[in-house]
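Justification of computing resources. Each target in the renewal requires a structure prediction run like the one illustrated here; the chain below, 70 residues long, is used simply to show the kind of job we budget for.
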Amino acid sequence: MIFPDEMELAIALYMADNALPRHGAIASLVKVGLENSGHLTGGSGRPPEIVEGKPSPNYVQYSSSIEDTV
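Resulting structure tokens:
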């Protein structure tokens, strides 16, 4: 895959700084981006409290404590 020139330069610099081959550098950069956006959460999928990158209004963090008192 070929990216715009400024991205190719950034990838090349990342490769040099981290002693990675091109595919390793791209995989590392994509992984960090997906983790930061909440799309990659350690293999468990998206957490239920996140919908479209924002907290879900339907998610209650301590649902068990609410169920015990009701």
